[in-house]
Design goal:
The complex is a heterodimer. Chain A is of the alpha+beta class. Chain A has 3 helices and 5 strands, in the order E-H-E-H-H-E-E-E. In chain A, strands 2-1-5-3-4 form a 5-stranded mixed sheet. Chain B has one domain: Molybdopterin biosynthesis MoaE subunit (Aldehyde Oxidoreductase, domain 3), CATH 3.90.1170.40. A 4-stranded mixed sheet of chain B has the order 1-4-6-2, with helices on both faces. Chain B has a 4-stranded antiparallel sheet with strand order 5-3-7-8, with no helix packed on it. Classes of the chains: A alpha+beta, B alpha+beta.
Amino acid sequence: MTLTVLYFAWLRERIGLPRETVETGAATVADLVAELSAREARYALAFSDLKAVRVALDQDLSDFDAPLAGVREVAFFPPMTGG
Amino acid sequence: MVVRVQATAFDYGAESAAFAAGARGAGAVVTFAGLVRDNGGALTGMEIEHYPGMTERALAGIEAEATARWSLDAALIIHRHGPMAPGEMIMMVATAARHRAEAFAAAEFLMDYLKSRAPFWKKEFTADGTDWVAARDADEDALRRW
């Protein structure tokens, strides 16, 4: 499947890009993270502490064991600091 | 029920007056504004990043929940993104209800939720460099009271 993957805040800075298109067979968010982390050190570094990372699937907050079937957009970002 | 996400500054007085004028039937209006703290003069600026699309969606969801829970007559959320100077207004919320208890509670609910459930990230600029603001445990704890 083809996913649009977005990165925000320090994840965007560490990985070095705001978005990319990823061709993947990952079943869950955790599988996708493992696949990205295996690519290059900058991904492994960005995803080294998943307690500090949040994920949204098609713009709804989700979690790392959520399935990716039917999903088009995955976003990774740190805990939010609005207000 | 209005949500606005914008880079430009807003006029808190004019927004508050227009909100109150449009809240017919309400007996109480509460408004709150969040400002860029200068941290004792150490902060030179702030930049707020957001997730276009999800931001509007998350804020509308939070506003709809508050409106239903406290039977609000009106609600408003304005939140800025982009670069800001110390002392500038980052955001405001306004709630209108029959009585003040509902308006105060709903405004606090909106603030608690948008702090940690709306996709905004603050970056602070100081003479020493830049830092992403870390989420505080207290902000997450604040959600449990609702």
